[in-house]
Design brief:
The two termini are about 20 Å apart. With about 100 residues, the protein is α/β, with parallel strands linked by helices. Helix 1 (about 5-15) packs across helix 2. Strand 1, helix 2 (about 30-45) and strand 2 form a beta-alpha-beta unit. It has 3 helices and 3 strands, in the order αβαβαβ. Helices cover about 35% and strands about 20% of the residues. Strands 1-2-3 form a 3-stranded parallel β-sheet, with helices on one face.
């Protein structure tokens, strides 16, 4: 998954939580956002994330990736190495299809 997208979003979450040292959050993501959030959780310490909820996330990739920009298409295509290691997430997770 694009490291730039994941790290920017995780940085925003960390800055938002900074003033409240013991706060935790539930991360809710829809569609491809679930894959990006899972990438963030896999590559950064999720100690402040209490629960991860995904709605319609294409965990094994999507054939619709051919309609996306080239980098996203490669990363979200079925069998993409970018999807390896995202499951199971390191926090309690609920996925809804």
């Amino acid at each position: 998954m694009s490291a730039a997208i994941g790290l920017v979003q995780m940085g925003k979450l960390e800055r938002w939580l900074e003033p409240v040292p013991n706060a935790t959050v539930d991360v809710v993501a829809f569609g491809n956002g679930g894959v990006i959030a899972a990438w963030m959780l896999a590559h950064r310490a999720p100690s402040r994330v209490r629960r991860f909820v995904t709605l319609g996330t294409p965990w094994r990739g999507t054939r619709m990736a051919v309609f996306m920009p080239p980098v996203a298409a490669r990363e979200l295509a079925p069998g993409s190495p970018a999807l390896d290691g995202l499951l199971p997430p390191r926090v309690p997770t609920v996925s809804v299809w």
